UniProtKB/TrEMBL annotation:
<keyword id="KW-0378">Hydrolase</keyword>
<dbReference type="InterPro" id="IPR029058">
    <property type="entry name" value="AB_hydrolase_fold"/>
</dbReference>
<dbReference type="GO" id="GO:0016787">
    <property type="term" value="F:hydrolase activity"/>
</dbReference>
<protein>
    <submittedName>
        <fullName>Alpha/beta-hydrolase</fullName>
    </submittedName>
</protein>
<feature type="domain" description="AB hydrolase-1">
    <location>
        <begin position="10"/>
        <end position="244"/>
    </location>
</feature>
<dbReference type="InterPro" id="IPR052897">
    <property type="entry name" value="Sec-Metab_Biosynth_Hydrolase"/>
</dbReference>
<dbReference type="Pfam" id="PF12697">
    <property type="entry name" value="Abhydrolase_6"/>
</dbReference>
<dbReference type="InterPro" id="IPR000073">
    <property type="entry name" value="AB_hydrolase_1"/>
</dbReference>
Length: 252
């Protein structure tokens, strides 16, 4: 995929608490390489008290509708999932790797970026050795989670002023969302890659490789790229992150 006409649209699914603004630097780097970028704002990033009862189902619909908007217009799509975005993204993209008709597009690649790449039925609770990074917001909204020490867990290698802006932009994350798990996973049917962030404190390198190895044990090929980054390479090293994504997409 080398010509601009054949480059897929890159759809970014944000991680917990994150919104499209967090990925603007990465989007610009991909734009400059000729890629159209669509970053989704999911329902679960709302910090309102009256959140949907089932944000999981709603987010899957939002993600799927955003992708099919492109595929039905004949455009291929590559889906980049960050952190918890891999949970709903894994289910939402199921069945989209095949062309519906001669004029439609399809999802050609799943790219997990220090992201949850779990099997059917698995939740965060299945990995008790991973660090706890959030707590229930007892003071403001007991239906939501708030991140613990985002500077430490999310932005440890991001310049301080940029990191503070990122923290100020963080949205909410509903407690109900983490109670769900994918009932089906698209990495079984769509070519898959993973960007490992070696210095991540939220989802450690060992945790990321644990998921990669588990998927490979299912007989699925997972391409990998390694970045010397913490949890937010789209802020700390957007050029290198874009290069890693392009490397997955521009192979013949």
């Amino acid at each position: 995929m080398t010509s601009q006409e054949t480059k897929p649209v890159v759809v970014i699914i944000p991680g917990a608490w994150h919104v499209p603004a967090h990925y603007a630097h990465l989007a610009l780097k991909l734009n400059s390489a000729g890629y159209t970028v669509d970053c989704i704002e999911s329902s679960c990033t709302s910090d309102e008290k009256d959140l949907p009862e089932n944000t999981w189902t709603e987010d899957i619909s939002i993600i799927r509708n955003a992708i099919t908007l492109h595929t039905e217009a004949g455009r291929d799509v590559a889906v980049v999932m960050h952190s918890f975005g891999g949970m709903a993204g894994s289910e939402a993209t199921c069945g989209l790797g095949k062309k519906e008709n001669e004029t439609s597009g399809r999802v050609v690649k799943l790219i997990y970026m220090t992201s949850f790449m779990l099997k059917e039925g698995q939740t965060r609770a299945d990995f008790p050795d991973w660090p706890d990074i959030a707590r229930v917001d007892d003071e403001q909204n007991p239906k939501s989670l708030v991140p613990l020490e985002p500077m430490h867990f999310f932005y440890s290698d991001v310049p301080e002023q940029m990191a503070q802006r990122a923290i100020d932009n963080l949205g909410g994350f509903p407690l109900s969302h983490v109670m769900n798990s994918p009932s089906k996973v698209a990495w079984r049917e769509i070519p898959t890659a993973y960007i490992v962030c070696e210095d991540d404190r939220a989802l450690t390198k060992d945790g990321q490789e644990q998921m990669i190895n588990a998927v490979r044990a299912e007989g699925v090929e997972v391409e990998t790229a390694y970045l010397k980054s913490a949890h937010s390479p789209f802020l700390s090293m957007p050029a290198d992150t874009a290069k890693a994504i392009r490397g997955f997409l521009e192979k013949a």
